[in-house]
Write a structure and sequence with these properties.
CATH topology of chain A: Rossmann fold
Largest interface: A-B, 63 and 56 residues
Distance between the termini of chain A: 52 Å
Strand content of chain A: 25-35%
Mean pLDDT of chain B: 81
CATH architecture of chain B: Orthogonal Bundle
Number of domains of chain A: 1
Radius of gyration of chain B: 17 Å
Number of strands of chain B: 3
Oligomer: heterodimer
Bound molecules: guanosine-5'-triphosphate, magnesium ion
Number of domains of chain B: 1
Structural class of chain B: mainly alpha
Shape of chain B: elongated
CATH superfamily of chain A: P-loop containing nucleotide triphosphate hydrolases
Strand order of the largest sheet of chain B: 2-1-3
Order of helices and strands of chain A: HEHEEEHEHEHEH
CATH topology of chain B: Arc Repressor Mutant, subunit A
Number of helices of chain A: 6
Helix content of chain A: 25-40%
Largest sheet of chain B: 3 strands, antiparallel
CATH class of chain B: Mainly Alpha
Chain lengths: ~210, ~120
């Protein structure tokens, strides 16, 4: 907020400016329930201080699953955090954190279209949100890995027990992480990329 | 700074103000498909007679900047930024660098480039 008072022109700090050579961007979506650590993870690996973008929607007429007869119109704005990692001089990776609850799925169209894949961030104290998210990602054919954020008071689940609880096929990687750690968050992204790499290899082979 | 609760209205800026900025057009009729991570680059500086928001975009995009970042820095919803950008693109005030097309995913060379980049973090 401080930038508004000091300077009429807003924009990236000089160290956050992308080089002229940046020609293409890709995105990865971090999805999970409230307070699961999405913003923390994005902030841990981002080269810029995480930014917030808003999207508005008029509720009526958008919900594909809605039954007819919804008369009331209301405008909702949802904030999404995102960060950025310059992969090389040409390629930029953006990370978007988005809430997993069904009522926010209207955001997904623009988010997942063209996304490399997703990280489902799971809080073992509240698995329900993850069920819906995982089901929805499978439906849409979005490749994803599951990252289990380690909260001190969370019950310890062995990975294979979680796999069973989340009904995940053996091929989907599940990794433990601490979203506050840059290295750990980087490893989560790396797990996703290795998984995508294996998927791409299978596609090319067949 | 997080999501508004269920059914909670968010009145900052207000729909009316947004209506004025976009001249009443809605993003759905925008001719150019813009992704959140489409990079936008200005072709020149802000010109006279430009709407303030459009001038601000042109100023921001002297170097490549994603649609999402433009939205964040201007504090405008992505849908509004998209409409403003469509006009700027039509007038060739800015150019766009589209993201890697979904049809090309998963592209193994691309994934490997990302892995290399992450390894340097
Ligand atoms: N112990 C522990 N705490 C964490 C971890 N990740 C996040 N936290 C804490 O959990 C709280 C919520 O984290 P956020 O990153 O804001 O979660 P979020 O998913 O963005 O939350 P919303 O946007 O409100 O849905 C913060 O206080 C974090 O410091 C983690 O890996 N381990
Ligand atoms: Mg958050």
């Amino acid at each position: 907020m401080d930038f508004r008072s000091s300077e009429p022109t807003v924009g990236p700090r000089s160290e956050d400016v992308l080089p002229e050579t940046a020609t293409a961007a890709v995105k990865v979506v971090i999805v999970g329930g409230f307070g699961v650590g999405k913003t923390t993870l994005v902030g841990s690996v981002s080269e810029i201080r995480p930014l917030t973008t808003e999207e508005t929607m008029t509720q009526a007429g958008v919900g594909v699953d809605d039954t007819a007869g919804v008369e009331r119109k209301s405008t909702t704005t949802v904030a999404m955090d995102f960060g950025r990692i310059s992969i090389n001089d040409e390629l930029v990776l953006y990370l978007f954190g988005t809430p997993g609850q069904e009522r926010f799925w209207f955001l997904w169209r623009g988010l997942f279209e063209g996304a490399l894949g997703a990280v489902v961030l799971v809080d073992t104290r509240r698995l329900e949100v993850s069920f819906d998210v995982i089901g929805r990602l499978e439906e849409r054919g979005v490749p994803f890995v599951v990252a289990v954020n380690s909260f001190p008071d969370a019950p310890e689940h062995p990975i294979e027990e979680l796999r069973g609880a989340l009904d995940l096929p053996a091929s989907v990687p599940i990794v433990a992480c601490d979203a506050r750690s840059r290295a750990s968050s980087r490893d989560v992204l790396m797990a996703l990329m290795r998984y995508l790499q294996s998927l791409a290899a299978t596609t090319e082979a067949s | 700074m997080t999501q508004p609760g269920p059914g909670q209205a968010w009145d900052e800026g207000g729909p009316e103000r947004l209506y004025v900025i976009t001249g009443g057009r809605s993003g759905s009729s925008a001719p150019t498909a813009l992704d959140l991570v489409t990079l936008i680059v200005a072709t020149s500086g802000p010109g006279p007679g430009m709407q303030p928001e459009q001038a601000a975009i042109v100023r921001l995009c002297q170097r490549p900047l994603s649609v999402a970042e433009i939205s964040a820095y201007l504090g405008l919803p992505v849908s509004v930024v998209t409409v403003l950008l469509s006009d700027l693109l039509a007038d060739q005030r800015v150019t766009s660098r589209p993201p890697v097309p979904p049809a090309k995913l998963p592209d193994i060379a691309l994934i490997e480039a990302v892995i290399d980049g992450l390894q340097k973090l």
